[in-house]
């Protein structure tokens, strides 16, 4: 069985930025993603501004 120090669920922008920030450390990171790496917005497109405007 492999062992990891950090397990990321999802591979969107936050997970990618986190893994970049930990480069150079001795931590073993596992990213679990059920779809394409990068998340919804980069792969399929999204309009988060619409949701923020709608909530006002």
What report would you give on this structure?
- The chain has a two-stranded parallel ribbon.
- It contains three helices and two strands.
- The model has no long low-confidence stretch (mean pLDDT 83).
- The protein has helices at 13-21, 40-44, 48-54, and strands at residues 6-9, 29-32.
- The chain starts with 5 loop residues before the first strand and ends with a helix.
- It is an alpha+beta fold.
Record the strand order, biggest sheet: 1-2
Which blocks of ≥5 consecutive residues have pLDDT under 50? none
β-strand percent reads 5-15%
Quick one: how many beta strands? 2
Helicity range of the residues? 25-40%
Intertermini distance: 49 Å
Concise summary:
38% of the residues lie in helices and 14% in strands.
What topology does this entry show?
Elements lengths: L5 E4 L3 H9 L7 E4 L7 H5 L3 H7 L2
Parallel strand pairs: 1-2
Label this structure with key terms:
single chain
